[in-house]
Design brief:
Elements: E1 8-13, H1 21-29, E2 38-43, H2 49-55, H3 82-87, E3 92-95, H4 98-102, H5 107-119, E4 123-128, H6 139-150, E5 163-166, H7 182-200, E6 209-213, H8 219-227, E7 232-235, H9 242-258
Parallel strand pairs: 1-2, 1-7, 3-4, 4-5, 5-6, 6-7
Bound molecules: phosphoenolpyruvate.
């Protein structure tokens, strides 16, 4: 499945929230319909997926937060496979989120998941990002290493079906040090595109799709990120806050109307 080229993405990762089905129904009922070239994709916890797909259509606008790494003939109890998700009409799956990496997932595991998703005609949203940012630019090595390990052996063609989520760890979640500024995001987006170009022998780096994640909470921020070369945003907390989500969507619409 090729990444839609003209769309702007708002990926709303609910992570482990909310606590109950009733609350999940309220959240998805508050989601505005995606319009035209903006795709607002909800990533609810697995137990709520069926319900969310019924209330929020089309089905491709519901994605999954992860899959299980299935070694051949695995019988990993409680696992979720790409084919199961694809058969539900899903298109997008997040892999390599920093929380999952922190729990022990390595670049090779993520590489295996990316390949499994591509084989099932799905679009992996692959999270990468430096642990800390330093003035001397050492953090670029951190990103470069992740790129080489995570995307090892993938081709220029594969990247037409992959979305990269640039998520600097220091800017994510309640422990975030501060928001990333647009200039920081812009230089890193260019760096990531160049690195993917080098990895795949592709001189034309324009097609790599990158979204940004890290405490995005309002429309102005969203517009700055789009102007910085991102094709959308990956949201955590704002996914569950109708006011913040509404502001971000309005920001995307304003950006799009100016284009
Ligand atoms: C995340 O955890 O990927 C994330 C972007 O979260 P938040 O928006 O809450 O920082």
């Amino acid at each position: 499945m090729l990444v839609p080229q003209n769309n702007i993405f708002v990926f709303a990762n609910w992570k482990t929230k909310p606590a109950t089905l009733a609350e999940a129904k309220k959240i998805i009922a508050s989601y505005p319909k995606s319009t035209g070239r903006m795709e607002l994709v909800a990533f609810p916890p697995f137990p709520f997926m069926g319900m969310v797909q019924e209330m929020y259509t089309p089905r491709r606008l519901v994605g999954a937060q992860n899959i299980t790494e299935l070694v051949p003939a695995s019988s990993f109890v409680g696992g979720v496979t790409p084919s199961q998700l694809a058969s539900m009409g899903m298109r997008y799956v997040i892999v390599g989120h920093s929380a999952v990496r922190a729990a022990g997932e390595n670049d090779q595991d993520i590489n295996t998941k990316i390949r499994a998703l591509l084989e099932n005609n799905m679009i992996p949203i692959v999270c990468i990002g430096e642990h800390a940012r330093d003035e001397s630019g050492e953090f670029f090595h951190d990103i470069e290493e992740q790129i080489q390990g995570t995307f090892d052996g993938l081709t220029k063609k594969d990247f037409e079906s992959i979305i990269i989520a640039y998520e600097p760890l220091w800017a994510i979640g309640e422990e975030a040090l501060r928001d990333a500024i647009a200039e920081e995001v812009e230089e890193t987006v260019i760096f990531i595109k160049r690195s993917i170009g080098t990895l795949t022998g592709n001189q034309r780096i324009g097609r790599t799709t990158i979204v940004y994640g890290g405490s995005v909470s309002n429309g102005e921020q969203a517009q700055d990120l789009l102007n910085a070369g991102c094709r959308g945003v990956l949201l955590g907390r704002a996914s569950l806050d109708p006011k913040q989500l509404g502001s971000i969507i309005n920001g995307v619409k304003t950006y799009r109307n100016k284009k």
